[in-house]
Design brief:
single chain; elongated; about 190 residues; mainly alpha
């Protein structure tokens, strides 16, 4: 590689090593993948090594940032979140926005590891929502909290992601299950 590309790689490495913006890193990955496809289509193999080096730099950082997010959700203590009410929680809103952005970007060049990490993050967010719901004293408040959060996450995901995505399907099932429980409680029956 030439001096110019080597200098750019050096600056890119310095930037990426301190970057915690997972969407920016993921967008960079997809820009590189597009340029790599364009150069392959135009039969310009001279900079293939450059694109590969960039990807080798970006993928591990993106995965590391997602793993940090997963750890952060796992370590969240619902009792330290402050005042809780039955409205959708800001953490679930942030998750929904983040997940929908990653899912919509990932549709152009799907990557299995990204889907696996997003699945882990989704599972941890679902666990967090259940842990926060358990903080409410009445079953009615718990159900309202769960329904509000699942509905909000589903709405955000459906705006930006494909309806057949695993994330949308998962939250539709959770929302349907909680609304059925709520209906049975309103009708005076026992919750399943």
């Amino acid at each position: 590689m030439g001096k110019t590309l080597a200098m750019f790689l050096k600056h890119m490495d310095a930037y990426v090593s301190d970057c915690y913006d997972s969407i920016a890193v993921f967008l960079s990955i997809h820009i590189v993948l597009r340029f790599k496809a364009i150069t392959a289509k135009r039969n310009v193999p001279a900079i293939d090594k450059y694109w590969d080096t960039l990807l080798e730099m970006l993928w591990p950082r993106f995965e590391h940032i997602l793993e940090l997010n997963i750890q952060s959700i796992q370590n969240t203590d619902p009792q330290k979140l402050g005042f809780l009410d039955t409205r959708p929680h800001y953490i679930t809103r942030r998750y929904a926005e983040f997940s929908s952005a990653i899912v919509s970007i990932n549709q152009t060049f799907p990557h299995d590891r990204t889907l696996t990490l997003l699945g882990q993050l989704q599972a941890e967010v679902e666990n967090l929502v259940l842990r926060v719901a358990a903080e409410f004293s009445s079953r009615k408040e718990q159900l309202i909290f769960l329904i509000n959060n699942y509905d909000m996450m589903l709405g955000v995901l459906m705006e930006r992601a494909v309806e057949e995505s695993k994330e949308v399907e998962g939250f539709q099932q959770l929302l349907n299950a909680r609304t059925q429980v709520s209906r049975s409680l309103r009708e005076g029956g026992a919750a399943p």
